[in-house]
């Protein structure tokens, strides 16, 4: 981890909650503002509910330091795109982040690298921070994983507005919903290649890991180039989210102490 880069944790609700259940979850997340990590502002936290809950997010998370965003965006600013939502509209709704190119979107909706590039361009042009998901489909060797993942990352970064902030969420597809996260050495190898790729582009890049991430995952990855975690169902129970947040402050403190003066 780069010492002056604050850890970041993201949570996607996908389509697991209804509106009332989302409101309750958001209220519970707001109550976490006094935890070790959030209370000390030792970590950036963002949440991605379904589109109809964006107004609720703006209301319930106001003043907590927790940011919110959306799980998808369209590449067009306006036009005859029935059912789609533009980056400009998300920004108007108070969103800061937007997820782009998740493996489920690629698998079920036919999204390609070109789609992700266009959506990244739209998001950064509107001042949003795209959370670009990238990762290999199969549990291949690290070299093959690097090659497949960097193809996706480079395509997305080609669409980013120069100087914009971009988060890359490294999510090996084979680890999404698995019993355990991908092995730390595998993640760190691919993450190092992603970090080098980010450094080659004119963006303010951050890197998080997703794929059955949970308590303990951050500690195993924090000495490398990974800046945080992208959480799924574990964080749908806010007790699981609290456990992840509370372990970040002491881990980060230990890392700071180990850095040369």
From TrEMBL:
Superkingdom of the organism of origin: Bacteria
Keyword terms, alphabetized: Cytoplasm, Gluconeogenesis, Glycolysis, Isomerase
Top EC class of this enzyme: isomerase
Record's subcellular location: Cytoplasm
InterPro entries, per database record: Aldolase_TIM, TIM_sf, Triosephosphate_isomerase
Main location (coarse class): cytoplasm
Pathway: Carbohydrate degradation; glycolysis; D-glyceraldehyde 3-phosphate from glycerone phosphate: step 1/1; Carbohydrate biosynthesis; gluconeogenesis
EC number(s) given by UniProt: 5.3.1.1
Record bears the keyword Isomerase: yes
Catalytic function, reaction form: D-glyceraldehyde 3-phosphate = dihydroxyacetone phosphate
Assembly with partners or alone: Homodimer.
PANTHER family recorded: TRIOSEPHOSPHATE ISOMERASE (PTHR21139)
Name the UniProt record assigns to this protein: Triosephosphate isomerase
Organism annotation: Streptomyces ochraceiscleroticus
């Amino acid at each position: 981890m780069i010492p002056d880069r604050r850890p970041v944790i993201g949570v996607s609700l996908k389509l697991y909650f209804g509106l009332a259940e989302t409101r309750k979850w958001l209220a519970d997340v707001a109550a976490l503002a006094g935890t070790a990590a959030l209370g000390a502002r030792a970590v950036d936290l963002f949440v991605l509910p379904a589109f109809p809950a964006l107004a609720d997010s703006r209301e319930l998370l106001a003043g907590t330091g927790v940011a919110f965003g959306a799980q998808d965006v369209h590449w067009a600013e306006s036009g005859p795109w029935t059912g789609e939502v533009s980056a400009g509209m998300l920004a108007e709704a108070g969103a800061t982040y937007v997820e782009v190119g998740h493996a489920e979107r690629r698998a079920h909706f036919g999204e390609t690298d070109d789609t992700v590039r266009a959506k990244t361009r739209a998001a950064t042009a509107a001042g949003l921070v795209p959370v670009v998901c990238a990762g290999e489909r199969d549990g291949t060797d690290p070299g093959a994983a690097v090659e497949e993942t960097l193809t996706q990352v480079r395509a997305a970064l080609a669409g980013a507005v120069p100087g914009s902030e971009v988060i890359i969420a490294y999510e090996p597809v084979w680890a999404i919903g698995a019993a355990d996260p991908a092995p730390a050495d595998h993640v760190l190898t691919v993450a190092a290649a992603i970090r080098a790729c980010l450094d080659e582009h004119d963006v303010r890049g951050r890197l998080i890991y997703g794929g059955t991430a949970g308590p303990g995952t951050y500690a195993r990855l924090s000495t490398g180039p990974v800046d945080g975690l992208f959480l799924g169902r574990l964080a749908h129970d806010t007790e699981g989210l609290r456990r992840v947040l509370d372990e970040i402050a002491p881990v980060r403190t230990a890392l700071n102490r180990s850095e040369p003066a």
